[in-house]
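job 3f2a | input accepted
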Amino acid sequence: MDDISAKFSQYQEAIERSNIVSKTDINGIITFVNDEFCKLSGYTKDELIGQNHNIVRHPDVHPSVFKNLWDTILAKKVFKTIAKNLTKDGRTIYLNTTISPILNSQGDIEEFVALRHDVTQIIELNMQLMQKEAQLISINENLEGIVHKKTSQLQELNKNLQDIVKSEIAKNEQKTKLLLVQNRLASMGEMVANIAHQWRQPLNELSIILFKMKKCMQKDKSFENVYEKGKHIIQNMSNTIEDFRGFFSDDSFLEKFYLNQAIENSLLMIRGTFEKEEITIKYENKKDTEIYGSQSQLMQVIINILNNSKDALKENKISKKYVQICTKITAKTAEIYISDNGGGIKDEIIYKIFEPYFTTKHSLKGTGIGLYMSKLIIDKFMGKLNVKNTKNGAKFSIILPLKREKNGR
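job 3f2a | predicted structure (409 res):
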């Protein structure tokens, strides 16, 4: 009997040293705790004995857990769980817990014995692993988002780069084209200067001849009219030559002049050619106004547009050919509209006609510089030169600002 008691004591000591042991009565009041329980919980035996076991309960644990515990052990069954407890100093610990009911000889519950193992480190490591896993998942999701975002940015950058390359290529082509135009204009400037020099003397001589003829025909009134007309044409030719020189030297004479006078002078220059081609000129000049700029250069524009109309009417073999000129004066602009019944300009090229060296005429009949120069001249006026097709033909519009002085006001 003594031998059995001794062995029992050894078993009890072995269990207490390797486990965290506590006992409670049937109401959950602590009746025994071993040294390991005190060491882990931070309480002394005196602080624990006689207290309800919920002294180490963690506030995070849901009440349903304890209901399940009591339902199990009161049914005389063993309850196993990983219990989350709170130490005296407020630390959270996790214990692998087995609670067993102890029955008396009649089979009634006498007390409860709980054996525990500290698994706090394992649980905390597992929680850290779970956090790391969640972080890795989040990082992976963020990485996918970053990759997608960067891919989209790269695609957009690539698209923008392609657009920039195309734009730069277009700019370089335009610069090359403009450089070619400038070189050709410089050459034309030299040529016009030479022509002006060569023409000036013959024009002067022609003027002298006309004057001598007038003296010889003093009593002939009809010749007087022819003389005045010839003198006017010579003067306009001289002014036109000077204006061409001024255009290329950028040293044009600026003045105030009347709009209708510029139009009428232009018509005087081309009227004979138009009559020969049987082209009727319809001119409406109900109102007039002063313009500031180069009158002869504006005449160049008008004459150039009229000559283009003449060529279109002739080329398309229109039976009843006409050109209509009308003006409109507003508070801020003077507007000239020149239209014809020559059939219009093809839609696929109408936007090109103000480009340098673009022409629909045979190379022997046109250089493609006229409308380009006209556009440059109207730009100097700070105005606009446009064209559109109407039912019968093309319609050019020249929009000029009013009250522009040298200082821009």
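job 3f2a | Residues 315 and 338 are 18 Å apart (CA to CA).
job 3f2a | closed
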